[in-house]
Amino acid sequence: MQREKKTTLALAENGQTGSPVRNPASCQRPFVRNGGVTRAVAPLLGFILVTLICPTPALASAFSASGKVGQEFYAAGPPGHTSSGPTGATFTQEYRSGGIFLSSSAEASSGVLALLAVASMANMTNWDSGHISSSATAHSIESVRPAWQLLIGSGESFIFNYAIGVSGGMTTTIEGYGAVGSEASLAYNYQVGDSSGSGQWSQNAAGQSSKYGTWNNTIHNAFTVHRGLTYNLDLHATAAAFGTKNYSPGGNATIIALADFGHTLTWLGITGVQAFDSQGNEVPLPPDFYLPLMGQDSGFDYWNSAAAPESVPEPATWLLLGSGLVVAGLIKKSAARRKDS
Length: 341
Description:
By secondary structure, the chain is mainly beta. It has one domain (27-340). Helix content is 10%, strand content 48%. The chain has helices spanning 46-53, 315-340, and strands at 63-71, 81-85, 88-97, 100-109, 112-124, 130-146, 157-166, 169-175, 179-192, 195-204, 209-212, 217-226, 231-245, 253-276, 282-283, 293-295. Strands 2, 3, 4, 5, 7, 8, 12, 14 and 15 form a nine-stranded antiparallel beta sheet that branches. The chain starts with 45 loop residues before the first helix and ends with a helix. Mean pLDDT is 79; it is low at 1-60 and 311-325.
C-alpha cells in the first residue's frame, strides 16, 4: 500500500496533505523469544519499529547523522564518530570482538540519505545470553528558494512534479544452538512543500514481515509553491538491526541481522511543472522551462537530480560496501555449514 499524499490543483482527486509520522504513543521494546516476537505481526518487530519512528531532536543544522551499536557480552567498544558541515553529515561506529560484528553507518547530504545497520555474531561459543543491536539515522531539512527574480511572465502559483528514488534490502538469519532470533527494519518519511509520504519495511528470521510505502522503486509526487515564497525539503530515514542469543553451554550461535539502505532516499529532481494565474487558469510554459531551486544551506539546485553516476561510488558508499562484505562472508560461511551438516 502506497501512502504518498498528493496535493495541488493538478492532483485534486486526492487533495490531502500531512506531515511525516514521528510521534508514536510508546517507545517500549518487547522481548523476543524462540525466533519470533511476543505479539502478532501487528506490531511486527516492536523494538525495531519504535527505534525507527521515535521523534528526532530539533536540528541545529540542515544535515544530521547518528547511530549506535550495542552488545551484552563483552566490554563496550569505541564510540562512534560524527562529522557535519554545511553540505552534509556522517556517522560511523563499529564493534568487533569474540565473533561479534556490529556496524552503524549514516550519511546525509543534499538530496541523498545512505544508511547501514549490521548486528551479527558468528559461531558464538560464549555461554551467556544477551542482545546485539545496531541503528543508524540520517536527516536532511533545507529551506529551498526558487529563483523568482529570473522568472519572466505571469504565473502566481506553480505545481512542481518531482521524483524520489527508494532502495533498500535486508537479511535476517539464525542457526546453531543458542541463536534465538534476528530482526531488521528500514523506514523513511519525507515532506516537500505541502506534499509528504512515508514507508516502513520489517522482517525477522522467523519469516514474519511487514511492508508499506514505495520500496526499490521511484516515488512520484507534486507540491505547490506561490510566487515569491520558499518551501522546505525534509528527508528522514532510519535502519535498525537486532539479534538475541540464549544461555547455551557449548553453543555455536550464528545470528545475522542486516538493514541496508545504501541509498535510502535519493532526490531525482523535478520531472514537470505547471503555472497558474491568480484566477486558477493554467499559464503556458515553454518546453525548456527551468527555474533554479536553491537550497539555502548547501547551495544545491534541487531542480536537478542528486544521484551520483553509478560508476563513481560516493564516499559513504565505500564504508557501506566494506561492512556489507563482512556480512556477506558470514552468510557464505553459514550456508557452507548448513551444506556440510
